[in-house]
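Dear colleague,

Following up on Tuesday's group meeting, I ran the structure prediction for the two-component complex that the binding team flagged. I've pasted the input sequences exactly as they went in, so you can double-check that nothing got truncated or mislabelled along the way. The structure tokens for the whole assembly follow below. Feel free to forward this to whoever is handling the docking comparison.

Inputs:
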Amino acid sequence: MNKKIVEIVDTINTSQVYAELSHPHSGGICVFVGAVREFTNNEEVVALEFETYKSMAIKELDKIAEEAFEKWQLNAVVLQHAVGAKKVEEPVVVVGASSAHRSECFEACRFLIDTLKERVPIWKKEIFKNKSVWVSAHP
Amino acid sequence: MKVLFFGISKDIVGKSEMEISDLTKKTTVNDLKNYLKDEFPEFSNLTSFAVAVNSEYAKDDVSLERNDEIAVIPPVSGG
């Protein structure tokens, strides 16, 4: 049985992900965690604020998980993204995959985060001291 | 028809939901995009924007029905 977890959450709990991906047939578990970075183009970021179109985001996350199961022999896949205000060093996204051997889960993990960033309807606003900016909105 | 707005598109129109009565019969995704660009010129300054119909990305030629859930999707920036 494959395990699949796709969620939009208020807070990412990075200590749960191992249990979520652990599987009797998996000898390799690969996880990517995205966190709030303090500087963007030398400007100090106070916080990031995430919002989502939840029903569509869950659908897209689910499609990405299913695509990963089709591309690689995986036993478990996790895609979780947080919403709300997040401070420097807080985790905002965690994705991961587990497989019999490491190469599949390494490749799948990169696919999961790259595809999530391309098409899941989640928006990030960078809050600086004197202004705030929706990321990627303008060319 | 009712349209949902997120991210910067919500800031542009000033609300998260809007009833658009100017668009009625035989409206497509492309018509909605043009309507928004006409009414709110800032839409033309965005990198791009998509429209979702019933929680799925919709191509420009898709027709919009009265009961569809329609949403404006500005450039995504999760992760």
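Chain A is about 30% helix and 40% strand.

Cheers,
M.
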